[in-house]
Every structure is written in C-alpha cells, then in structure tokens.
Amino acid sequence: MTKERRLPLKIIRGLQWYLGLPDEFLKNSNTKLDESFKFVEMEDGLVGLSVDTDERMLSQLQKNAVKIGGYDFREGSSAPLAFPLFPSKGLRLKRKISNWLDMFQNLPYVSPYDDSSHLDPCSDVSEKRVVGVLHELLSLFVDHSAERKKLFCLRTHFGLPQKFYKAFQRIPTFSTSH
C-alpha cells in the first residue's frame, strides 16, 4: 500500500476475484468493514480502502514464524526470515544459484507493511522486500496465485521498484507462475 496505507477501489476491483470478495462488497461505501479498514476519498475524486489502525501489522510469513519459532518482531527489528520454497520436482539449482539463494534467504526480512523508503532500490534487501510483498499478496489470494499482469498495477501503490517483475525470474517460488 502507499505510505498512507490506502489503495484505490478500482485496483481492488481488478483483484476482487483473487481476493474472494463478493460483487456487492465494493459497490457501496456503506459496506460494514472490520474496524481496521475504512473507505476514504483519494486524489482525483477516487475512493479507496484505507488501513485505519496504529497496531503494527505482521505479514503472514511473520505470523507463521511467531507461531513456529517464537520470533519477536518489534518495530525496527529486521531478523533474517526465509521464504518457504516449493520448487517444481524438475528444478535443480546450480551451485552458484543455490549459494546465492542461501545468501538471499539469510538477508534481513523487511515486512511489506513497514516503511521501505530508506532501502536502496538496487540492493538485495530491497529485492527481498519485493518478494515479501508478492508472498503476502499471494497469501491473501484465494488460490494463492494470480496472473502477473494483474499484479503489475500495484507497483506504485506498494512502493515497488520499476523492475519488480524480475523477482518472478530470479526466485524459484515465483518462476513457475503465469
């Protein structure tokens, strides 16, 4: 989401099927929402959905790590957190790529919900955040998958770098996606 933690409804509408939202959910702003969300006016007269909470939000990966390993994700902590990889049976990683992937997995994890403006967009940590954003999105989707082109419209709203699509090519988890 943007730094203001809001997303235009027209973007959400494009992902509605993937999110499992009923048609009437986005049709009127009188829809009863969880108290963490609210409808807001955005620039250019657009209506958006905003996160309205001061609580620190944890990604699905962080929630799983807390449940399994007793991690404590306080504000500003950046513990290394590995993404679960489910490569296809035929995928064999060459040693060089395997070593890079091990190093990548050991980089600090930056939550998709944390401010990333301080990250160098060309760094490996920034790339790991991109993978984290994609991982979080896919965890929210009903089938845990989506067409790549449906995700491209989220780039500016989630503060992703211009060439974020490269994560699909470099990370085995995403390399088999459409």
Automatic annotation (TrEMBL):
One Pfam family cited in the UniProt record for this chain: PORR
Name used for this protein in its record: PORR domain-containing protein
Organism for this UniProt entry: Stephania japonica
Molecular-function annotations in GO: RNA binding
Domain PORR: start-end pairs: 1-172
InterPro entries attached to this UniProt entry: PORR_domain, PORR_fam
